[in-house]
Amino acid sequence: MAYADFIPESWPFSAGTTAVVIILATYFIAYQLSSRKVDPREPTVIVPIIPVVGHILGMASLGGRYIKNLGLRNRNLPIFTLPVPASRIYIVADPSLAAAVQRASKVLSFTPIIPEVTERVLGLDKATMEITRKNLDPGPGEERGFLADIQDMVYAWLGPGDYLGELSLEAAREMRDEIAAYAASSSATSKQPTDLLNWVRHLVTVSTAKYLYGPQNPIALDPKLEGAFWDFDHGLGSLLMNILPSITASRAYAGRERLSAALQAYLEKGLHRTGSKIVQRRVDIATAHGWALPGVAREELSFLFAGIVNATTSTFWLLTQIYADPELLAAVRGEVESILEREGPSDSSSSGGGGGGGRTRLRIADLKDRCPVLAAAYRECLRLGSDTYSTRLVKEDTLLANRYFLKKNAVVQIAGGVIHADRSIWGDDVDTFNYRRFLDRREGGGGSGAGGAKQQGAAPIHPAAFRAFGGGKTLCPGRHFAMHEILAFVALVVLQFDVQPARGGRIEVPRKNDGVLPVHILEPVSPVQVLISKRADGFARDGLDVEFVM
Ligand code: HEM
Ligand SMILES: *[C@@H]1O[C@H](CO)[C@@H](O)[C@H](O)[C@H]1NC(C)=O
Predict the structure, then answer these.
(1) Is-contact 278 150, C-beta < 8 A?
(2) What is the C-alpha separation between 135 and 144, in angstroms, rounded?
(3) Given pLDDT bands bounded at 50, 70 and 90, which one contains residue 362?
(4) Which of 229, 388, 474 to mutate to test the pocket of ligand 2 (most atoms within 8 A of CB)?
(5) Integer Cα distance of 460 and 439 in angstroms
(6) HEC sequence for 225-276
(7) Considering only CA atoms, which residue is closest to atom 19 of ligand 1?
(8) Which residue has the CA at smallest separation from atom 2 of ligand 2?
(9) Rounded mean pLDDT, 89-107
(10) How far apart are the first and last CA of the chain?
């Protein structure tokens, strides 16, 4: 039976016209419904052009850029509502509201989302998920589940203290040795163009795997797993979608399965006992909560991931910005050279590592405290490179900041990409790399808060405006450590190497690729091809033997 059969005789319009009328009517009804507030105090609703599913389609096709563009087009709105099928997403684009979201962590919580995300991304099995969901968000005095225990430990161990110093030293020494191995290799003298991001990736991946998981870590035993790691990373968004991942995210899926199998074999042999203390502790906590080794292996893949991905891309941007600007390079070199100390009886007039022979001491804390230009450039790279979203689930109907109604079971996202690109916060040069905005700073404390950023002649920048490490209960526990290892890596490179564009001229800093789901600091849209060579000005001509201290 054809559709036209249902049209009554007296109906004056053709089937085609009728179809158009029906479609338009449906469209307007759907539009009306999706633009309606569920409560008069709900934040302004932004209705998609295609009703109901429009925002979902936008996010799927444009990645993080979709919401960022909405936020930048509606800069007057500190918070707005995106209607999506059967729910709402509230986008927060204002630092003081972001701080209010972070404070309301009882009702606006990230914790319920963690199992959903890890199950998909890591491929955890049902039994493990059951353990993870137990005592997820314990109140004071209640029994603590796996997640609460492991988070407490990681935050405590990576917070300021002895262990942070110990791990930072291990990381810096490992990176020093990897960079020295590169300098001694034929690649360093071959005058072959090098993709700077790949170069950093390799060095950071190999050294992170080593200082966290020991010399017999899976990547050291099978270097091909390095490729598997980056396959996993680049398909994380598709794994998260979880639509037949073995087909729709086949490379990421295969990479993850190979890595977790290798990590499982590593754990079965007890090789983690040769790794870092924090990894041993993580494995012990998981085991004590009843996790089986296949699950522990997947959980450790997530820790390896957290240790590698953001450190890699941030290091890449910092090196690129420094080598793209000869004045900045000179300033950074000047700062780092000024904190070098010769070890043992000083026999020559040359200060620092410029002379031949002898060890040179480099204090990691000095990189943070006595190299203001380097530290400011680091923060500015994170501001520009980070479009992070801090996500929270609304556990009960809530009135945010006594003003905005948020519906139970909706999702709140603090849009770092919008806040980092807001002219009214950072000034008219918001889109350009200007490390000076972070120079005039108070002691910033490892990049938490805004790092003490100030605008010349303007009010200080709100502490919740710097979003690279997230904020509130999900503030990155690795932020102090990350600053140590990244500044150590960059110091080692600027002390020893010149980096020139492979095609001559000056290094051009590419744009960031913001068309992906921002699971980490954004990568460049195009590669930076360079020649890496020993410094031409003769500094450290006879090699640089650095001993790191804290
Ligand atoms: C520049 C480098 C880094 C940046 C920008 C960064 C950023 C972040 C952000 C934004 C989050 C919060 C995610 C959320 O809100 O959902 C996070 C979480 C985390 N980061 Fe980092 N991170 C960096 C380096 C590191 C390093 C080197 C480590 C470890 C050695 C690390 C360990 C972690 C862990 C374990 C979590 C999860 C915390 C939890 O259990 O909730 N991060 N990071
Ligand atoms: C890496 O940094 C980005 C941007 O700041 C953030 O969204 C993401 O959660 C971080 N991921 C990890 C694993 O640290």
Answers:
(1) no
(2) 6
(3) very high
(4) 388
(5) 13
(6) HHHHHHHHHHCHHHHHHCCCHHHHCHHHHHHHHHHHHHHHHHHHCCHHHHCC
(7) 476
(8) 520
(9) 96
(10) 81
Count CB-CB contacts under 10 A for residue 418: 24
Q: Which of 308, 310, 484, 490 to mutate to test the pocket of ligand 1 (most atoms within 8 A of CB)?
A: 310
| Nearest ligand, CA 316 | 1
Report whether pLDDT(351) > 50.
no
Q: Which two tokens stand for residue 193?
A: 């163009």
pLDDT: which is higher, 59 or 349: 59
Ligand 2 centroid to Cα of residue 467, in Å, is: 10
Whether the CB-CB separation of 413 and 100 falls below 8 Å is answered with: no
Mean pLDDT value of segment 399-421: 96
pLDDT at position 349 is 44
Question: Whole-angstrom Cα distance, residue 302 to residue 219?
Answer: 15
Burial 212-249 (b: 16+ CB within 10 A, else e): bbbeebbbeeeeebbebbbbbbbbbbbbbeeeebeeeb
CB atoms within 10 A of CB 93: 27
Tell me the one-letter amino acid at 303.
Answer: F
538: which DSSP letter?
Answer: -
For residues 274 and 542, the model is more confident at: 274
Q: Two tokens at 426?
A: 């950072």
DSSP state, 289?
T
Q: What is the pLDDT of residues 279-313, one digit of tens each?
A: 999 999 999 999 999 999 999 999 999 999 999 99
Give me ligand 2 centre to Cα 141, in Å.
Answer: 31
Q: Which atom of ligand 1 is nearest to the CA of 474?
A: 15
List all residues 6 or more positions away from 219 whose beta carbon is below 8 Å from its beta carbon: 205, 206, 209, 225, 226, 229
Atom of ligand 1 nearest to the CA of 388: 10
Give me the pLDDT at residue 357, please.
61
The residues lining ligand 1, judged by C-beta closer than 6 Å to any ligand atom, are 151, 154, 306-307, 310-311, 314, 382, 388, 390, 468-470, 474, 476-478, 481-482, 521
Atom of ligand 2 nearest to the CA of 310: 1
- Comparing 231-235, 336-340, 352-356, the range with the smallest average pLDDT is 352-356
Q: Which residues 6+ apart lie within 8 Å of 313 measured at CB? A: 197, 385, 520, 521, 522, 523
Query: What is the DSSP track for 198-224?
Result: HHHHHHHHHHHHHHHH-TT-HHHH-TT
Q: How confident is the model at residue 55 (pLDDT cuts 50, 70, 90)?
A: very high
Q: Does residue 301 contact residue 263 with C-beta atoms inside 8 Å? A: yes
Q: Find the residues whose C-beta lies inside 6 A of ligand 2.
A: 305-306, 309-310, 386, 388, 468, 476, 518-521
* Nearest CA residue ID for atom 7, ligand 2: 388
pLDDT mean over 42-62: 89
